[in-house]
Amino acid sequence: MFRYHKGRQLSFVVHMIIKYIQNPLRCVIATKVFGINTGGASKMHHCIAFVIHASSILHSTWFNMKCVILLACVIGAVYADVSSFQPFQPQGIYQQQQQQPQQYTTEPIPIIRQEHVQNPDGSYKWSYETGNGISAEEQGYVKNQGIPEQEAQVAQGQYQYTAPDGQVIQLQYLADENGFQPQGAHIPTSPPIPREIQSALDYLATLPPPNPENREYSRN
Q1: Which residues cross the membrane (predicted)?
Q2: To the nearest whole percent, how much of the chain has pLDDT over 70?
Q3: By the number of CB atoms within 10 A of the CB, which of 58, 96, 144, 149 ranks highest?
Q4: Which pLDDT does position 91 carry in this prediction?
């Protein structure tokens, strides 16, 4: 007997044949074809025998050709070897890219000199110099120590480095109760004050400060 109890593929073929053949007589022919005795042939031979037998029974040449083509396509799809196909694995933006560590090609810059001194009274001194021409130093102390109303931290120092254009930048500074006071040739200077304005400023500086008690207010 033509047995396909273990295979869903041929059940799909039978379903397509019965669905395709509209005439009841042809439905009987299609179902009886499964009783063909093909011996120990494989499933593929069973399908081929079924196609040949169905084609010889059906009287319409046009219908036979159409049925044979349809059955051949269905059989080829059922027995196609899809083992070589691999499942689609999305890549690109859906996968987090591993960040490579940043590599530096420049040589490390050596420290030629380094010093740091911290004293108990609050005074200090530090300095360093690198192999690429950078140097800095600073020293500081507490001014008027012991007088809370007049205590102030004082720091003075300098630093030097080479700008990208090759210019050597050197700056000296002083920081105290009057603020940060830098000095350097690269610092832009303001234009000179006109003589008339400077004379007026000098005159105002000689006047005594106004007395709020002697100020009179006009009432409307």
Answers
A1: none
A2: 49
A3: 58
A4: 58
Q: How confident is the model at residue 3 (pLDDT cuts 50, 70, 90)?
A: very low
Asked if residue 138 lies in contact with residue 121, where contact means CB atoms within 8 angstroms, the answer is no
Residues contacting residue 137 through CB under 8 Å, at least 6 positions apart: 125, 126, 127, 128, 157, 158, 159
Residue 17 gets the label, from left (phi > 0), alpha (psi -120 to 50) or beta, of alpha
Contacts of 27 (CB under 8 A, 6+ apart): 18, 21
How far is 71 from 191, CA to CA, in rounded Å?
99
Per-residue tokens: 23: 């005439």
Buried residues in 57-94 as b, exposed as e (16+ CB within 10 A): ebeeeeebeebeeebeebbeebeeeeeeeeeeeeeeee
φ, ψ of residue 57 to 5 degrees: the values are: -80, -45
With beta carbons less than 8 A apart as the criterion, state whether 173 and 154 touch: no
50: number of Cβ within 10 Å = 22
Rounded to 5 degrees, φ, ψ at 10 are -70, -30
Contact 176, 152 (CB under 8 A): yes
Whether 119 has a pLDDT exceeding 60, the answer reads: yes
Every domain of the chain and the residues it spans = 8-78, 110-178
The CA distances from residue 26 to 4, 70, 193, in Å, are 21, 16, 115
